[in-house]
Design brief:
The complex is a heterodimer of chains A (about 325) and B (about 325).
Chain A lengths: L1 H28 L4 H6 L5 H10 L6 H13 L13 H36 L4 H15 L2 H15 L15 H35 L2 H8 L4 H38 L5 H10 L3 H29 L1 H5 L1
Helix pairs in contact in A: 1-12, 5-6, 5-8, 5-10, 5-12, 6-8, 7-8, 7-10, 8-10, 9-10, 10-11, 10-12, 11-12
Chain B lengths: L5 E12 L2 E13 L4 E5 L6 H8 L8 E9 L2 E2 L5 H7 L4 E4 L13 H12 L4 H14 L5 H4 L9 H13 L5 E5 L7 H18 L2 E6 L2 H4 L5 E6 L2 E7 H6 L4 H8 L57 E3 L10
Parallel strand pairs in B: 3-8, 3-9, 6-7, 7-8
Antiparallel strand pairs in B: 1-2, 1-4, 4-5, 9-10, 10-11
Classes of the chains: A mainly alpha (about 325), B alpha/beta (about 325).
Bound molecules: adenosine-5'-diphosphate and magnesium ion.
């Protein structure tokens, strides 16, 4: 087990290194000189040269990367190119909002997908199954930005039940925190939930058709007990994998939804950094997002090992 | 003779399929007495599994439609509620299946799967169910049962898994143990061990056994009585020695002919019955075996379904032209 963990953590570090190289390369290879953008219309050659030198942009690419990497390893992601604040603190400031939204969205997705998928599988071929399939098809086909705008129109502007955008910290007002969280979380959660529903359905259906279910029935167990004690423990294995993958997708959706709902998260931070050519900030933000994604993958793998005795032993 | 434990009368099973109605079991009747071992033999596809799954009510209805009656201690299981059926399964009627590799849940320990029916039907606490589970594993010949009980199925060999299935089947002292080709998926040595184990446990515990197989060769060691099934019907029913010595049905004769005789040194000379079993969606109108039978004639066999003549009580044959073999 500890060997497994060591291996996975090493893999994770390698992946992070890879991400950092790719991000670094992309930022430095795409057109749009950050200094030029920063100076805007007030262009001045001396100022330009000075800024390039100060930010290290005049040095060779490889040298820049290793300088950045060396600092990153000590936890120093440098200063924002745009406003000279430490990138680490800018990112950490935004992290709680993003994590909150990601988990809220995942919560919505799971709360919707598990019952819907299970019922759909158990009643497979019956009207309820068709209803669930149709609903999840709608969910899957909905673009996130469109869904977000529709929810704002309906629940915020027309019905006036919920605020249309913004963020309130939990410590400030738990109720407002929740009210602001609902729409963005539902926007991503229902889409992810629709995808997960399908996987839950097929995983449960697959498990239901196994011989050991017949054995369980031959013992006289009730159908519900069979589902809980025999079918689901097997179905969890593929479901957890899909939920882990969905979290990645879901984090992609965060950028769009954070922008629509003016949610002060990492996604919006990264987008602003792109617009401003704030390369140091963008590197930091992307690195954190990758780190979150890989951590989630690690957690999924650990859950996997808990769920499947065949993996546990070998 | 005492009343039978299990009495099956005119059991019929059909399935609605895309190709039409599949007539898989077409009116079979038999009695099973306490402590008796009855073997149902027939080629693959003759409806053996479906016939026993039907009496356990383990077929999804629809697509299955089941008719007839299955009296367990005089009570008709085909009329029982789902709740009543659940209290019968695993308690009065236990069943073990062909493939021990897939019949056990891969993510549950042996002990968990073994204890389940005991806590359900016998109301045992976790502790006493575990103790009895270890006893059962010991009884079915699993070494170091106190270790094996916490293992997962993938840690056991096929033979060991089938032993676990048997232990599971016996855990609540069933009146009837239905074994559906329990040795088919195993290698020859393990086959013999499992057959011997069931025969020995049957002697010791005294439950009745329905032993299903496609191999007449394994029947001799275990069965008291044999029923030969084909195309969803019974062709012949006799005591095991009678059947071997004097097969009356051409189909039984054919099955026996395809068995290697003890001491035979030229196995390539085995006679197999040419042709294939009938398609259940297009059952022939007369005797299901007629299309493959060398003795069949157009006037009777292909038109009229032969049935058991009730006169020869111990040896029944459903054939218009039974073989005149004298034992
Ligand atoms: N659910 C089903 N739907 C349609 N046909 C079925 C179904 N289950 C079994 N059958 C058919 O019933 C016949 C007998 O099957 P089975 O009882 O498994 O045979 P056996 O156990 O004797 O090998 C086969 O032809 C099979 O195709
Ligand atoms: Mg079968």
């Amino acid at each position: 087990m500890s060997q497994f963990l060591t291996k996975r953590i090493l893999q994770m570090l390698v992946a992070l290194l890879g991400v950092s190289i790719v991000v670094f390369a992309l930022i430095h290879l795409v057109p749009g000189d950050p200094v030029r953008v920063a100076l805007g219309t007030r262009f001045d050659q001396d100022l330009y040269d000075m800024l390039r030198e100060r930010s290290g942009l005049d040095r060779p690419f490889i040298e820049q990367y290793f300088a950045w990497l060396g600092n990153a390893l000590t936890g120093d992601l440098g200063l924002s190119f745009r406003n000279s604040q430490p990138v680490t603190s800018l990112v950490l400031e935004r992290l709680p909002a993003t994590i909150t939204l990601a988990f809220a969205a995942l919560f919505v997705a799971i709360v919707v997908a598990l019952p819907a998928g299970i019922i759909s599988a158990v009643r497979s071929g019956k009207p309820l199954d068709y209803a669930v399939s149709a609903a999840s098809q709608v969910g899957i086909s909905m673009p996130d930005f469109w869904a977000g705008v529709m929810y704002i129109l309906l629940f915020a502007l027309t019905l006036r039940w919920l605020p249309s955008s913004g963020y309130v910290s939990f410590l400030e007002s738990p109720i407002e925190w929740l009210r602001h969280l609902v729409l963005p979380a539902i926007t991503i959660g229902l889409i992810s939930g629709s995808v997960i529903t399908r996987f839950v359905r097929s995983a449960v259906l697959e498990a239901l058709n196994q011989d050991y279910v017949r054995t369980a029935r031959a013992k006289g167990l009730s159908e519900w007990r069979i589902i809980r004690r025999h079918v689901l423990p097997n179905a969890w294995i593929p479901i957890v994998t899909v939920v882990g993958l969905q979290l990645g997708f879901l984090m992609g959706g965060l950028v769009v939804v954070e922008v629509i709902f003016a949610w002060p998260g990492l996604g919006r931070l990264a987008l602003t950094a792109v617009k401003d050519r704030d390369f140091t900030l963008l590197q930091g933000a992307v690195l954190y997002i990758a780190f979150m994604f890989l951590t989630i993958n690690l957690i999924v793998d650990l859950i996997y090992v808990r769920l499947d005795p065949r993996v546990r032993v070998s | 003779m005492s009343d039978p434990i299990l009495s099956v009368r005119d059991l019929r099973v059909r399935f609605g399929t895309k190709r039409g109605v599949a007539e898989v079991v077409n009116g079979i009747s038999y009695d099973l007495h306490a402590g008796e071992t009855l073997s149902i033999v027939g080629e693959s596809g003759s409806g053996k599994s479906v016939s026993v799954l039907a009496l356990m009510r383990l077929l999804a209805e629809p697509p299955a439609a089941i008719a007839g009656s299955v009296l367990l201690h005089g009570r008709d299981l085909l009329k029982a509620s789902h709740r009543d059926m659940r209290s019968v399964r695993g308690k009065d009627l236990a069943m073990i299946f062909q493939d021990p590799m897939t019949s056990l849940n891969p993510v549950r320990t042996v002990g968990y799967q073994l204890s389940e029916s005991m806590s359900l039907h016998l109301g045992l606490t976790a502790d006493s169910a575990r103790r009895r589970a270890i006893e059962l594993l010991d009884m079915v010949g699993i070494p170091s049962p106190d270790v094996r009980i916490d293992e997962y199925p993938h840690q056991l060999s096929g033979g060991m898994r089938q032993r676990v299935m048997i232990a599971m089947g016996l855990s609540c002292d069933p009146d009837v143990l239905i074994a559906d080709e329990p040795t088919t998926a195993l290698d020859v040595t393990t086959q013999a061990q499992i057959t011997d184990l069931v025969a020995e446990l049957q002697q010791r515990i005294g439950m009745a056994v329905i032993w299903i197989t496609h191999d007449l060769g394994v029947v001799a060691g275990i069965a008291d009585r044999v029923i030969v099934m084909y195309g969803g019907r019974f062709m012949e029913e006799a005591g095991v020695n009678d059947l071997y010595a004097a097969p009356n049905h051409p189909y039984t004769d054919g099955l026996l002919g395809s068995l290697p005789m003890p001491g035979a040194d030229r196995p390539e000379k085995l006679v197999t019955i040419p042709g294939l079993p009938p398609d259940p969606v297009a059952m022939p109108p007369g005797c299901p075996f007629a299309p493959r039978c060398v003795h069949s004639d157009a006037s009777r066999c292909h038109i009229e379904v032969p049935v058991f003549e009730p006169d020869r009580a111990r040896h029944l044959v459903a054939c218009h032209y039974p073989l005149q073999v004298t034992a």
